[in-house]
Tissue factor
Amino acid sequence: MIRMERKMFFFTKLCTVLIFTNCVSGDYPKAQNVSWLSINFKTLLLWDPEPTNYSYTVEYSIIGQNRKKNQHCIRTMETECDLSNSLVDLKAIYSADVLSEPLRGVNSDLIEFPHTTSERFTPYEDTLIGRPEFKIEVSKDKRKITLYVEDPLTALFNKQNQQRTIRDVFADELQYKVTFGKATSTGKKTKISASSEIELDRRDVDPGVSYCFNVQAYIPSRSTDKQLGELSQRQCSPGDDKSVFEEYGIGVIATFILLIIMIIVVAIGVTVVCCKRRRNANRSGKEGVPLRSV
Ligand SMILES: *[C@@H]1O[C@H](CO)[C@@H](O)[C@H](O)[C@H]1NC(C)=O
Ligand SMILES: *[C@@H]1O[C@H](CO)[C@@H](O)[C@H](O)[C@H]1NC(C)=O
């Protein structure tokens, strides 16, 4: 029996090799542009083109180990496969193959389908860290600004079925980089913080001045081109009333005050002259009528 099967197997293979166009129901195109797209451990394998008369199956494995399939990516008509929860060993090096196969339910004699292999991918090293959210708090004496960074959530879950944050995954290896400067100037400073609570004190900021901040994840253990995450939205701290001076400069404000003084002086001068004239007119006209106003 076994020998028979072997023979059959050999035959189909031979047939495939020799006169493949007759044995195969179609010559499926290979997947192209196979690439990884991964943010916060949400990891997709993408490829082209849209299938017409065939389907795709994704096989993945840690390099040198057995290939596995994700049940959602077998004979699929999609051009993407979510492998977030398949790449369980975050520090392992994975590779994936996209196979072009017959439509679901259609048999084929083909032993090997055309396939395209992806680049290697290690979730822990390669996933992009998305932009973090943060809150700004200025101390009462205005000498200290604290940024409270919210560690971004990942697509991974722990055993209690809670979503893990990037802090849960990277622990001490996760730091944050803050880029900041006075709201009124283009100068920029940076500060690296191991904690998600970032304190900026007198060495970093002037008291009572409005500063603007961008925050991004920073993982120094990674290769240099993958250390920095996406930049957050820019947010600014409130400043003092003093900032009016900084915004317009003392010269402009002094000129403005001088102008107001001049207007007042002119106004007083005009009223004085007017009153004198009226008094003179009154005196020369109806004498004896008491002055209504002084
Ligand atoms: C699709 O493939 C089937 C067999 O696999 C074939 O009979 C059919 O003609 C094909 N259709 C198109 C549009 O190529
Ligand atoms: C592969 O990507 C290139 C560049 O983005 C694009 O021009 C090409 O059409 C893609 N291939 C397929 C089959 O879609």
